[in-house]
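Dear colleague,

As promised, here are the two records you asked about, laid out in our usual form so they can be pasted straight into your sheet.

NAME FIELD: protein one
SEQUENCE, THEN STRUCTURE:
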Amino acid sequence: MRTRSCAFFAALIMLATLALTGCQTTPAPPPPQGGGTTSGQQGGGAAPPDGPPVVAIKIDNSSDGRPPVGLDAADVVYVEPVEGGLSRILSIFATHKPQTVGPVRSARETDAEILPQYGRPTLAYSGAAPEVLPIIAAAPLTDASDANAPEAYSRDDARPVPHNLFVDSTKLPPAQPWPGASRPLIGEVPSGGAPTERYEVRYPAATIGFFYNHPSRRWMVSMDGEPYAAVNSGRIGVSTVIVQKVRTHDSAVRDAAGNPSPVAESIGSGPMVMLRDGKSFEGTWNRPSPEAPTTYADQTGAPLPVDAGQVWVVLSPV
């Protein structure tokens, strides 16, 4: 009798456990990288929903600053021309914010011009020229430099100074949501386009290269002729590359060698090339005001959508 009672209660416990397990909800999958939207169109149609808050982080792109940490999680990556013909990166994080990102370097006037289209983002950076600080202070963003949020920054002694400063994104001050109209328009690959395997953007002292990997359907990134990899993910491959051809003008800032710091003009319009799905599409970019989103259209004026995943925007001086 005792054996039957034990068996009965064991069965009840098992049934209760199965019932509880069956009632558990399956965890929702993480949001897709890229922060894009398929509802409505950028700048028109039904208003897309606002996205998560935006954190922008200025990342080193010199040979001493590689490999980066956390860059593979960014939604949008801007490559900017800087003094001496070199490049630097402004990374936009929204759907995923890794705890450690860097190496963090100084801000430029170009950053203050790019960022207003993202609402009021938080900008993490390490210092800026005295002429640039008032421009950043006047921009619609939250200044989270290492001077203003020192508790969020630390140095990695395994790397040389100044290429060893990293930021903990979880310790940065909060940002505002990503305006829906500024989120990338995701869509099917457009008709037409020229089959393209490789594409390079050359600055005076830097080269940003992409080649299309058919099995992964990603554009593999190289810098100065070498594979570009992040610490946690290895070689970086992106879904869409936008080569945005921009005018530049010299700022009042000069480096130690006397080279002027260029300002890439991202407000206005101009030619562009989009790389996606193994093809290149020529068209135009347009951004009429600081708060307006940057839109991309083909040569007929039809919107050029990006593919889902990380988007790179290379600002290419004309």
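NAME FIELD: protein two
SEQUENCE, THEN STRUCTURE:
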Amino acid sequence: MRRRASLVLLAFAVFCAALAPLLRWYAYPRLAKIPANQYQAVVLEAKDATLLDYTGGMQPKKVDKVTIVQTLKGNVEASRQIEADAGKDVVVWDTLTYIAGPDGKMVSQIPERYIFDAHTQDPVHATGETVDGDPVKREGIEFKWPFFTEPRDYLYFDAQTRTSSPIHYVGPRTYRGMDVYYFEQTVPWTKVPMPKKMPIEGIDPATIEQTTGTTLWYTVKARFWVDPVTGAPVNAEQDIQQEMRGGIAASAPEGRLTAFAGHVAMREDYAQYTRDLVAANRTKVLALHTYAPAGLALAGLALLAAALWLEARGRRAPGVPVSGP
């Protein structure tokens, strides 16, 4: 019986030893990916901000709050179409950034289509890759860092300027009890396209620059607190400034008219929700990448030790007395 039990334990030990590396180096790279049907909404606020009063004389004024709603929706059908040509798992995110003034009315809204590799988060260039309807070719990451983010600089795409520049790793931080990596990016003053939807009655924003010579300029200092396991930001803050220059701003000091200036941060309830969501996904990724393979390896060693112990006991048979002639 002992020998049979030791053989069963040995079989289970071999099974666990074989399954551990298979789970880590075969299953994990294939299963760890962004779902194509993901949906998420985040509300950000800029309190005590400066906002251009488009309906009250085109002058900047202080407001108690500007609200920014960002929605992200996975486009499953578009993902399948692109995957057929790309030959790999692809995610298509249709996003919308909706900016509302203190009265709740729209200030601007900018749609995006972001196409990327579901496993690595590298951009995938395909028809439909746009920002506010304009075709773009992203380089680097946007919205999300890769799984198991490294403590180094990355190339990050800024949707306003339609350009990519380094986002710098500053160091480790603790955010609401989570160990995270902290990144910063500063985009210098850059001329950017006018949003295609703005609260200007009877005027197409796309023609403002052509008819009046007015240009829109933008600068930002962006900060991200990123969970290094999932690569998902648990918090994001931005110091944004936008100016109109020349044209309708010619009479303003130095020919510059502030369109927006403020510190943008997640609303408290969404900040806590995002932190909890990332923490839950972090546990799932670690279970597949680390906990399960390590547990199986330890279980295999324990089963092997038990099998050897039973085998050794089975071999120590009691002495048999020998009778004389």
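A couple of things worth noting about protein two: The longest helix spans residues 268-315. The chain has a mean pLDDT of 90.

Best,
R.
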